[in-house]
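User: Sequence recovery, please. Input:
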């Protein structure tokens, strides 16, 4: 028997579908399910009362051996399977996708088989829920081998001597048995799916091949389905801590890389499984946060079944912050989830996923949590320190720009995806009002350039009036000495934070980039941000794109604000470190503003070192010359960020699906117009002359 068994779906009775994965390196997807060692995973999919297939239970059992019969049917010949696991209600959405990939040996050639789909995705969705009456589940029912009743494409990629990947399409009619010549399969050369109808030739660099191989190796499987990528897959790391988990924010560039490359299945699975975790009970010291909170991360664990002989089950173990350093809830997780959901629909055309009842409910729960009434006088979202990418104490508590930019983006995504009816019309109205107020607030009070800094320098303080100019009572002495000489004559940026009597003048890269992508800033402000990055390239990019923030906290300031954090020492990690994963967001912002050459310059700079340095998490020193002192290697979002940047630059039309243009209707919405008291005058009209759209 071969070391690598063949994966074949079998069934014992209708309408159930049981899929058995045999041997250590077997896989339906071309990679092995993570964390499963010489075991078989059996899925039992049965129909619910409504007729929709649901995952009712699954088993994992150790078996002595697996036999593949002459009819290509795989079955266990020894070992027992027993135990009932917990019941899940996730819809079985993969059944209409057919067989994805069939592999034989390790050094075989990759052949991809996919069903031919129509271009009108809304009417021909891959969602089972919309096709229940068509019995799509039964049509893909497998028994005694492969019996796929669809006309399919075979896309075979061949590497030539000139390093050109050729994609050839051959239309085939399905037969009762699909035979694969194992000697002709090479999974190492498999690059993904391209559903175009013409032969495509494109040069693929060695660094891209390496990146795709590492990204595939980072994939995590749950019940045999890919559900995400681990944060890092460093082979030399004996203490991975939580880097072996799937983080929502970390998976976003991975998800975009897969979906841009034609593989939307892993993204769809990720969105649905993390949505399932949203409803889990989450408690820290007998206190539970509000409904709608998404986990920071999750891990697939194997748990022994009670009363069984060596059998075990796979479970998802989420972390909502109760295990995180500082026990901080991940505010950005739900925002990133909504952003990725929209991106998936835009690129794949599978809008049926957004329209599902459970997905619509998940969106509403996240928004209800973010839009809940509180004591705030500002439309910006109030959070604690460490609640986003900067997940350690760095003095960003309050209203950090990163959260506001992601919040604004998520609101715009939700407004597109929510189905408007009697149950959601009030929520949609609240979204519109918040978008309008938030955009005005950020544009008016967060923006600084040479002119604005000079105005702050001349501020009067202690103004008690509804018409005060210095509304937040900012003291001019707060302007740091470094900023006076650093700010260029042209260009500007959005400051990191704003609170009463406090302006954080540090430049935070992610918040400024997402302000461009989402059109949170005005056209002139967005152009000014890129001008500043270009003018201060040696400070913000230098040897490795891009600084997470500038400048670093040093000396007494570092001791007081970070609490003497040994990981966030000056010019390291979150305190002025250089993070290659920001490359894809920089690329997207540049392409929106018509400056792709800036992104290409940054990508070319990163290419010189990333592969040589083994794809580190971050770089240290003011110029980003050293690998981070605690940086993990083979960091997944570093790898995925690079790949996503390359694909965005090669596909401007797809990049345009991921950003937003200015919404002029929002500028006309003002909740103050609803007030009949006339007690106070709206400050927006007084300030409108200062905001250049």
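Assistant: Recovered sequence (693 residues):
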């Amino acid at each position: 028997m071969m070391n690598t068994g063949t994966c074949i779906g079998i069934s014992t009775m209708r309408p159930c579908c049981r899929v058995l994965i045999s041997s250590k390196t077997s896989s339906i997807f071309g990679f092995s399910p993570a964390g499963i060692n010489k075991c078989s995973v059996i899925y039992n999919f049965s129909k619910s009362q409504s007729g929709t297939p649901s995952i009712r239970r699954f088993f994992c059992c150790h078996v002595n051996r697996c036999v593949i019969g002459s009819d290509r049917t795989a079955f266990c010949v020894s070992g027992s399977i027993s135990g009932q696991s917990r019941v899940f209600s996730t819809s079985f959405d993969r059944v209409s996708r057919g067989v994805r990939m069939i592999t034989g040996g390790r050094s075989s050639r990759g052949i991809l088989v996919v069903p031919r789909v129509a271009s009108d995705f809304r009417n021909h969705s891959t969602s089972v829920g919309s096709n229940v009456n068509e019995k799509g589940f039964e049509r893909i029912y497998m028994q005694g081998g492969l019996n796929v009743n669809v006309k399919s494409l075979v896309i075979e990629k061949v590497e030539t001597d000139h390093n050109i990947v050729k994609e050839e399409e051959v239309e085939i009619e399905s037969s009762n048995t699909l035979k694969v010549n194992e000697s002709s399969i090479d999974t190492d050369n498999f690059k993904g799916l391209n559903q175009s109808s013409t032969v495509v030739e494109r040069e693929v660099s060695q660094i891209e091949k390496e990146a795709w191989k590492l990204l595939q190796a980072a994939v995590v499987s749950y019940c045999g389905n890919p559900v995400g990528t681990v944060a890092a897959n460093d082979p030399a790391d004996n203490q991975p801590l939580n880097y072996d988990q799937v983080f929502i924010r970390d998976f976003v560039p991975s998800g975009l890389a897969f979906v841009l490359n034609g593989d939307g299945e892993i993204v769809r699975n990720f969105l649905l499984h993390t949505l399932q975790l949203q409803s889990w009970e989450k408690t820290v010291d007998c206190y539970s946060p509000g409904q709608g909170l998404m986990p920071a991360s999750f891990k697939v664990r194997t748990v022994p079944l009670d009363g069984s002989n060596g059998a075990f089950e796979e479970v998802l173990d989420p972390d909502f912050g109760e295990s995180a350093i500082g026990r901080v809830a991940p505010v950005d997780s739900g925002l990133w989830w909504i952003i990725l959901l929209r991106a998936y629909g835009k690129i794949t055309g599978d809008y049926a996923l957004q329209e599902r009842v459970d997905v619509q409910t998940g969106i509403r729960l996240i928004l209800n949590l973010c839009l809940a009434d509180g004591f705030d006088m500002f439309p910006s979202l109030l959070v604690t320190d460490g609640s986003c990418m900067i997940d350690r104490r760095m003095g960003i508590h309050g209203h950090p720009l990163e959260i506001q930019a992601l919040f604004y983006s998520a609101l715009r995504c939700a407004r597109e995806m929510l189905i408007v009816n009697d149950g959601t019309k009030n929520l949609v109205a609240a979204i519109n009002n918040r978008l309008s107020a938030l955009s005005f607030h950020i544009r008016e009070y967060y923006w600084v350039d040479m002119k604005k800094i000079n105005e702050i320098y001349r501020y009067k303080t202690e103004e008690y009036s509804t018409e005060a100019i210095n509304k937040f009572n900012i003291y001019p002495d707060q302007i740091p000495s470094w900023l006076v000489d650093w700010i260029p004559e042209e260009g500007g940026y959005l400051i990191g934070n704003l609170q009463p009597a406090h302006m954080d003048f540090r430049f935070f890269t992610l918040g400024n980039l997402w302000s461009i992508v989402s059109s949170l800033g005005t056209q002139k402000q967005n152009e000014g941000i890129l001008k500043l990055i270009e003018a201060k390239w040696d400070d913000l990019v230098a040897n490795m794109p891009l600084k997470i923030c500038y400048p670093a906290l040093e000396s007494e300031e570092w001791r007081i604000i970070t609490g003497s954090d040994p990981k966030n020492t000056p010019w390291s990690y979150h305190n002025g470190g250089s993070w290659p994963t920001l490359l894809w967001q920089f690329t997207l912002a540049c392409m929106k503003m018509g400056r792709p050459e800036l992104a290409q310059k940054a990508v070319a700079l990163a290419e010189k070192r990333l592969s040589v340095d083994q794809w580190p998490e971050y770089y240290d020193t003011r110029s980003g010359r050293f690998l981070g002192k605690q940086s993990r290697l083979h960091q997944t979002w570093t790898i995925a960020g690079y790949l996503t940047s390359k694909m965005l630059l090669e596909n401007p039309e797809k990049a345009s699906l991921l950003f937003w243009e200015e919404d002029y209707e929002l500028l006309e919405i003002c909740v103050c117009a609803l007030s009949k008291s006339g007690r106070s005058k709206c400050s927006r009209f007084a300030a409108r002359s200062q905001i250049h759209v």
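The first strand starts at residue 8 and ends at 10.
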